[in-house]
Specification:
2 helices, Snake_toxin-like_sf, alpha+beta, 31% strand, 3-stranded antiparallel sheet, flat, 19% helix
Length: 108
Amino acid sequence: MAPCKLVLFLALASAAIASPVCYFCLPGTEGCDKPQTHESPTVNCTGSLGDMACMKIAVTYEGIPLTVRSCMDPTVISCDDIKKIVDPVEAAELTECKFCKDDLCNGN
């Protein structure tokens, strides 16, 4: 059940609207855990929901990489908050959490 909650959290984390253009992929999307290219999906994160940024969250669960790239307001949820969600999940490790403001900055 824990992996389902973790994947659900990562998917919901990607649902926010933002202002820069960011790479977009959800856990389980082929290549999401790899560096993105000009052919990778993007999302134009326009809106007025606050201080929006591109984000990348990477978690390893039982050796399986789970990555989400999208837009989020880092004042609503921080990397510390995400770490607090992931840490109690046995066999899960937050390997990367990044917020950035430039277009397509969440590609690596």
